[in-house]
Please model this.
Amino acid sequence: MTLSWLVREYGEVSSTQEVAEKLALGGAREGTVVLAERQNSGRGRMERHWISPKGGLYLSIVLRPGRVGGVQLLTLVGALAAAEGTRKAAGVSPKIRWPNDLVVGGRKLGGVIATASTRGESLEFVVVGIGVNGNFGRDELGDLASASATLKEMAQAPVDLNSLRSRILEEFAVQYEGWGRGEEMKLIRLARSLLSTIGKKVEFKPLRGRVEKGIAEKLEKDGTLVVRMVREGLRLRAEEVEWLREL
Ligand code: BTN
Model:
């Protein structure tokens, strides 16, 4: 499985995720990338809004992995690509806050989302969306400003969004192809080295239930996070956690 990119560039869109999903439903091939300068209805995890002013990087990738097993790791593939690509293009080295946040000094620099479309038992396509706060100030992010970081503020010079995009896509192809060959452990090892969360006290909000506290212990092979609670260990699956933060 070799990925080749077909990048479609837009000015303003609702959400690159939405556009990519529509294209995928219409038969767009694997490797189609929807790239936009800005989004007016950017989507975050758990139906949150992703504020997307001009100057950020917003892209969504159409994948047709052909297998369902291990597909939950594709969010991690996106997060690794975004972290490594940002390091190479901008000289800023984000960590990954499980499951899908890119963080610098505890503040959120970017995020990854993955949506899957199935028909019956089979997987039709997955769209992985990546957003990185680029050449704008945190004040553009409203209420989220104090918990956010932008490359403009972290790097010494404005970031070249074209090279940021290319580096992220390059990294994505490497990790995705590895995943396709069944090299999950390589992926997990790299993710472990980039996770900000391990060994830290964390609190998290399960989808149904109240906020809990524990110590993040380990990223498992299937992408779940083991959190040690007072009495027992708990395995967190990304889709069951609304948010998680370090204490
Ligand atoms: C999150 O941290 O909650 C995930 C944020 C993902 C944002 C990106 S920006 C490009 C793509 N299009 C969207 O509407 N969302 C993703």
